[in-house]
Structure formats: structure tokens, C-alpha cells
Specification:
By secondary structure, the chain is mostly helical. The protein folds into 2 domains: about 280 residues, ABC transporter involved in vitamin B12 uptake, BtuC (Orthogonal Bundle), CATH 1.10.3470; about 70 residues. It contains 17 helices and 2 strands. It has a two-stranded antiparallel ribbon. Helix 4 packs across helix 16. It is globular and about 65 Å long. The two termini are about 20 Å apart. The relative contact order is 0.20.
């Protein structure tokens, strides 16, 4: 197979992914022109990636939820509830119990925040998976419960959460040298994975694609990593929350593609009856997915508290919609069975890019919502169109 025919085949197989990448590039170029370059300066690029992190944590979990044919409408307020709990502990509890122990206070707040998210995932997952109540109803009820929980914890007040150590989670930066070391490590991993993947295909007797195609893909993503580190180092360096987001995304992507847990999720979404007849424990898998979603809500809530610096009554408002939109924009099919973590990250970046660009242009919020809604509908139409074509 020639290099060009293989390249064409890959493009046809991943046309939806390439389409959203081109859409992202088009959005950046559009706003760069309208803002006379301000949109793509290092500071704005740095802020753009930081702003997408909370949505991204929720979106990468939402991929597996939607893949199985479910939905979670409570993730935004669940993350918001975790954020106000963390803020409350930081502001009113730990300084009285452990005065002057800022690191210990931040550590305990993080652990409790993760535990709250995990418990919430257990509760929702059990009701959905084992009591057979539709996820839409359960998570809609969960949204109201979490909204009430936020009001109970805050008592209608804003709670400060910008104490030392905790604020570094979302507001911290890596030194320039650390950013370059990280880039070198990532590039080395990409090269290693390329050779390992080719060796595995050779060992199992599969046809190998031209080496030049694999090399081009590896060099392309390596160039993106290096360019990103170079740009953000022009401002303050690689952002701590972006590093956390990347680690979480790699873990979830590995679980999705290389474990029974992930393969079963796609099998359930692709054909539930076939999955059941093949012996897959559907209830257990769905329970585990909502457990994971709850844990990611805990992570997102901690990052949200650190990023905003406060726990507020509006914490997490609308994040569930952004997370769902990001997953669908990234190619996750609302019909189930299809979706990738990488696509969800691109979707989250598109949503954040639109919001940031429109804000820089001082577009009224009403028009921002209209545009984002139209983009989401177009993404669903594209999903249906590509399914018909295939």
C-alpha cells in the first residue's frame, strides 16, 4: 500500500476527528484576525488552556457515560458542591484545628473533596445500575440535590478558598526548564509508542502501514507539544492544572482502549443485548463508570475552587452542559458506542475558544449562548450524517 493511499484511508476513517481539528484551527484564525492578534498571544493561549481544564475533567468522564447510552446532568453542580466544601474546610475548619499548617490543610481538603465526589458517584451509580432508574431522571434529581447542597454549605455567602498551596493547583506554573523536560519526556513516549505499536502489529501478523505515515503522525504531535511549551513559556510556563488534565486524560484514555472496563463500555453502547448475551456484567460496568465520573467531579471541584479562589452559590453552574457539548463536539455519539477522550479534549477546547473569543470581542452573553447552541446542534447533525455515510 502506497503512502498516499494509506494516508487517504486514515483520513476517511477519522474524517470526523479531522473535521473538528480543522474547525478549531478555523476558530483560532477567525478570532486572531478580528482581535488583531491579541487572541493568539502567549498570555491568552495560556489562559485559554487553563480555562478549559474544569470542563475537560468532566468531559473525559462524560465520554464513557454517553458511550454506554447514559447521561449525567449533575456533574456541574457536583463539581460545584465539591468546590464549596473544599472552600468551607479551608476557610473555617482547618485553620482552627491545625493553625499554621497550610500544607496539611490543603492536603486534607483535597482528600475530602475527592471522597465527596467518589461517594456521589457511588450513590448515583448504584441507583442507576442496580435499581434500574433511568440515568436522565437520577442525574436530573442529582442536579437539584447538589444545588441545594451548595446553598446549605454557603448559606448564601461567598467563601474564600485562595489559601497557600491550594491555590497552586489551578493557579500555579511549572518553571520553564521543567516544561522543556516534560516536553522531551512526552516526545520520547510518542516515539517509543510508535515503535512499540509497529512491533506489536508485526508480532500478531497484521499489515504494517508505511513507516513514513507513522513517523509523520509522531512528528506532528511532537511538534504540537513543543510549540505549546514554547508559547506558554513566553508567559509564565506550563500551567499546573493543564498538567493534571493531561495526566487524567492519558489515564482515562488508557482505561478506555486497553482494559476490559473500557472495551465493555463500548460494547454496551454499541449493542446492549449482544453485550449481555456475551456475558458482560452491564450493571457492574455502568456502576463503575459513574463511580469514575464522581471521582472526576471531585477533581474538577478541587480545581474549580483553586481557580476561582472562592466557593460561591453559583459554583459549577452550566458546566454539565459544557461537558456534554464538549464530548459530543469531540465525536462522542449521543446514540452510544462511539467516542474518544482525545476528541472530548478538542471539544472542550473548542467550547472554551468560542467563549473566550466572544468575550474578547465584547459579544453579549445572549449571543454567546445562541452560537454555542448552534455549534452543538451542528455537531450532532454531523454525527448522524457520518453514521449514515458509514
Amino acid at each position: 500500500m502506497s503512502m498516499f493511499s494509506e494516508l487517504g484511508r486514515r483520513i476517511r476513517q477519522n474524517i470526523q476527528t479531522y473535521t473538528i481539528i480543522l474547525a478549531l484551527v478555523g476558530i483560532w484564525l477567525f478570532f486572531a484576525v478580528l482581535t488583531e492578534g491579541r487572541y493568539v498571544n502567549p498570555q491568552n493561549i495560556s489562559n485559554l488552556f487553563r480555562q478549559m481544564t474544569v470542563t475537560s475533567f468532566l468531559a473525559i468522564g462524560m465520554v464513557l457515560v454517553i458511550v454506554t447510552g447514559n447521561i449525567d446532568l449533575s456533574v456541574g453542580k457536583a463539581a460545584g458542591f465539591v468546590s464549596v466544601v473544599v472552600a468551607y474546610l479551608q476557610a473555617y475548619v482547618w485553620h482552627a484545628i491545625f493553625p499554621g499548617q497550610a500544607l496539611l490543610a490543603a492536603t486534607l481538603s483535597i482528600l475530602i473533596g475527592l471522597a465527596v465526589g467518589l461517594v456521589w458517584g457511588v450513590l448515583e451509580g448504584y441507583v442507576i445500575a442496580y435499581l434500574n432508574i433511568p440515568a436522565f431522571i437520577v442525574t436530573l434529581g442529582g442536579l437539584f440535590i447538589m444545588r441545594g447542597g451548595i446553598l446549605i454549605v454557603t448559606q448564601g455567602r461567598t467563601i474564600p478558598a485562595n489559601q497557600p498551596y491550594l491555590k497552586e493547583i489551578a493557579q500555579g506554573y511549572l518553571p520553564d526548564l521543567a516544561g522543556w523536560v516534560l516536553a522531551i519526556i512526552v516526545v520520547a513516549i510518542l516515539v517509543f509508542n510508535m515503535f512499540r505499536s509497529r512491533q506489536k502489529r508485526r508480532d500478531y501478523g497484521f499489515e504494517l502501514s508505511p513507516f513514513s505515515i507513522d513517523l509523520f503522525g509522531t512528528l506532528f504531535f511532537s511538534a504540537l507539544v513543543i510549540a505549546y511549551v514554547y508559547i506558554v513559556n513566553q508567559y509564565n510556563g506550563v500551567q499546573a492544572p493543564v498538567l493534571l488534565m493531561a495526566i487524567a486524560a492519558l489515564i482515562i484514555a488508557y482505561m478506555s482502549n486497553n482494559t476490559k472496563f473500557g472495551r465493555y463500555a463500548y460494547a454496551i453502547g454499541g449493542n446492549r443485548d449482544a453485550a449481555r448475551l456475551s456475558g458482560i456484567n452491564i450493571r457492574q460496568n455502568i456502576f463503575q463508570i459513574f463511580l469514575l465520573m464522581g471521582l472526576l467531579c471531585g477533581v474538577a471541584g478541587i480545581v474549580l475552587a483553586s481557580y476561582v479562589g472562592y466557593g460561591t452559590i453559583a459554583a459549577g453552574e452550566g458546566y454539565e452542559l459544557d461537558a456534554i457539548a464538549a464530548a459530543i463536539l469531540g465525536g462522542t455519539s449521543p446514540l452510544g458506542g462511539v467516542g474518544t477522550v482525545f476528541g472530548a479534549l478538542i471539544g472542550a477546547l473548542i467550547m472554551t475558544s468560542l467563549t473566550t473569543g466572544l468575550q474578547i470581542l465584547n459579544v453579549q452573553p445572549a449571543w454567546q449562548y445562541l452560537l454555542k447552541g448552534m455549534v452543538l446542534v451542528l455537531a450532532v447533525y454531523a454525527d448522524v450524517y457520518f453514521k449514515k455515510k458509514s
